[in-house]
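Thread: quick sanity check before group meeting

JM: Hey all, I'm pulling together slides for Thursday and realized we never actually wrote out the predicted structure for the chain we discussed last week. Dropping the sequence here so it's in one place. If anyone has concerns about the input, flag it before I start.
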Amino acid sequence: MPDPCVVKTKYWHLLDDGRVQCDLCPRECKLHDGQQGLCFVRARQDNEIVLTTYGRSSGFCIDPVEKKPLNHFLPGTPVFSFGTAGCNLACKFCQNWDISKSREMDTLADAATPSMIANTAAELGCRSVAYTYNDPVIFHEYAIDVAKACREKNIKSVAVTAGYVSPEPRTEFYHWMDAANVDLKAFTERFYHKITGGHLEPVLETLKYIQHETDCWLETTTLIIPGENDSEKELTEMCKWVVENLGPDMPMHFSAFHPDFKMMDVPSTSHASLIMARDIAMKAGVRYAYVGNVHDKAADSSWCHQCGALLIERDWYELGRWNLTAEGCCQSCGTKMAGVFEAKPGNWGAKRQPVRM
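JM (edit): ok, ran it. Output follows.
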C-alpha cells in the first residue's frame, strides 16, 4: 500500500541531465532518484519531488501567541503549535536542532490530518494555529491543507519561518497565512552564507512581499549573536532598511542568544546588547521594538508612539494593564496601534500545554 505520509508536490522540474530540481526554495536542490533535499523531507521518487512527512508531527502544544513571538496579533490568546522535521537552512545556532536537523522518522511520533488539527484547536479554544519548531516552508502542502481546514472554522494561521522560499510557492503559501514572524537573522550576506548556509536577498524579498502584497500580519525576530550580527553599524542598516521597505509600524523583536548546537563556544547575549538593538531600532524610526529571552517588562511592553502612554503591559508572556480602546487605539490620545486586535485581550497567560492527538 502507498505510504499516506508521502504526497506529490508541484514545485519542481526535470533537468536535461536527468536530475529533478526542487523549486520550493532558493536552494534549488537537484536530485537523482532516491535522493533527499537538504531539508530531508522533500525527496525524489521516480521523476518527481514528493513530501515524505505529510500528516506527521514532532508534537503538538498550546502556547501563548506572544511566544511565537507575535505582540500585535490577538494578544493574550492561545495558539495551537506544531512542527514536523527538517529545515532548508543549516543554522549553526539552531535552538530546535533536534527537530530541524533530525534525520529520524521516529521524531515524528504524532500523526494528525488537517481536519484533526483544526477540530482539536477549535475544541481547545485556540484562536490560531502556528506552524513552528521547524520551518513550515518545507512542509508546504501539509501546512496549506491545515490552514484551509482552520479557515473553515475561523481559526487563524501563523507561520514562524526564516522566509527562505521561492516566489511562486511563496504566493500560494501566504495566501493562506494570517500572520507571520520571519527570522531576519542578520543583515549581511557574510552571516547568511557562513552561519546559515543561505542568502540574505531572498529573505528580504519575502519580507517585502508579505508586507506589501498580502493581508498577512508581519513581525520579525533577530537573534542577537555576540560578534556575529550585533554591531551598531549592521543593526542600524537593518533597522533603516525595515523602516524604508516595510514601514515604521512593523514590530521588530531582538532576542538573546544562548549557546547551542554548533555554536557552544559563543557567549550568551548580554541584556545591554538587546537594549542597544532596541534603541537603535527606535532611533531609526521603528515604532514597536521588543526584546526576547530576557526579563524586561518595559522593553517587552507596547507603548504609544505618539504620546508615550503604556498600551499593553507584558511580564514575560503574562499581560497586565491594557490601555487600548475596542478599536485598538490609545486610550490617552486616540492614536491607532498597528496590529490585529479584538475588543478585549485573551487571558491564556504564560501556560504551555502539551496536546496528544
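AS: nice. The longest helix spans residues 232-245. DSSP finds nine helices and 20 strands in the chain.
JM: adding both to the slides.
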